[in-house]
Predict the structure.
Amino acid sequence: MVSSLTFFIRERAVMKTLVWSVILGLFFSVGAEAIDLSASGGLMRIVNSSNLVACAGSNMVTTFDDAAATTLAIVNTSGSSDQWRIDVRRSDATWNNAIRLYVKRISDGSGSGAVTGGLSYVEITGSESQFFSGAGDRIGLSLSYELTGMSVAVAPNIYSTTVTFTVVDTP
Amino acid sequence: MRKFTKFTAFLAAVLVLGASGIAMATNNVAVQTATYEVTPIHELSVSGSPGALIINSATAGSDLPVVVDATTTYSITTNEACHITGVISPGEEMPAGVTLSVALATPGMGTSAGDVVLTAAVKSLVTGITAVAATETITYKLSSTLTAGARSSDTRTVTLTIVTP
């Protein structure tokens, strides 16, 4: 009887610990806001003889701009004062060091928040680069890609890279 | 009787925290693919046809002179290894004793075969071309032996072609 009572008291104490641990865990988890970022669109361009500056004897156009190739949406912020930043980097599958990829923002999108920066081309490299920032929810942020360095010296191939956008919650 | 320790309770709390943390972190990244497909490019053109090649005078005691025309050019754009060939259209072989040759200047790279006698068989004119965009001179030469005799005016079609390995 005494051992059963001891076990019952111990079990209640453990249960109390468990409940309080879960409650505190959930409280602090909910307290940490998670901004959501999504992207739609993508980029696929074919470079061929139609991209020569003129005709035979001329080199290729060096720069390609693809406007509105991508749209970003930043949602689930805690409100119009919840500040964030978008970083960008790339990871190459097959690439050529002669060509460089850039991105810029070409629209403000819509939403209760605001957006700033990113209106000039930012080079996308293998390291994180700060792209633009804002506050609150914004959707429909159109981006434009630019490729430079193209020429006949770039051998025929399919050059592909994964562009990663990251939203960083800033104070 | 089931054992239920404080360690188990703590472990459960950690799992809840971890699951919540994971759920919060999964949507802050968006990825896209940027793809550029560069296709093989082989563009070749000529500026036009050379002027008429006419042998109509000679120096007494000497062979007939060679008539030269270097007024035309070829233009090439390629992003692959290749060479240029030349050929006279089938059925248009030069008459016996009359020779038409062509020489292409190199487009800043490769090797010119120099004066190549044109026949209905394809012949290499410039080899070792890689990626280039250039315009260079074409030089035609017409020669004739004395025994070929006088010939009336005639035309030939010369075709230049980019060939990849």
Notes: The beta strands of chain A are 36-41, 43-47, 64-75, 83-94, 100-105, 114-116, 122-123, 129-135, 138-148, 157-169. Residues 28-32 of chain A have pLDDT under 50 and may be disordered. Chain A has one helix and ten strands. The longest helix of chain A spans residues 2-31.
